[in-house]
């Protein structure tokens, strides 16, 4: 896997993935940015959420669950020193669908957390406290 990050101006950078997709990263105005893109640490959180969501949905689809919507709310805390690393990350999954079996949803979230999500497992090995929970909403 490869990626490239190119400086644009001030504290704005353009990240390009190995698959050719791009994302703008920028800082807040009080740090010389223009607030025109995602902060790098926000992007890290999005990566964790995307990695885990990919796992959860793949597992639920393989178990023939009728999911109509899935999102994850991510909250994080950072230490109050430099470097301001994450100390805690919490992922709250909301799974909506018809006739969803709680055991399948619980298993999907647990497997992602403990076995499959490389991003969250890597961060937990670095000392970040990562927690997961879920709620199931019924409907189409």
TrEMBL record:
Pfam families: OsmC (PF02566)
SUPFAM superfamilies referenced in this protein's UniProt entry, alphabetically: OsmC-like (SSF82784)
Segments traversing the membrane: none
NCBIfam families with a match to the protein in the record: PRK10738.1
PANTHER family named among the record's database cross-references: PROTEIN YHFA (PTHR34352)
Entry protein name: OsmC family protein
Organism: Spartinivicinus marinus
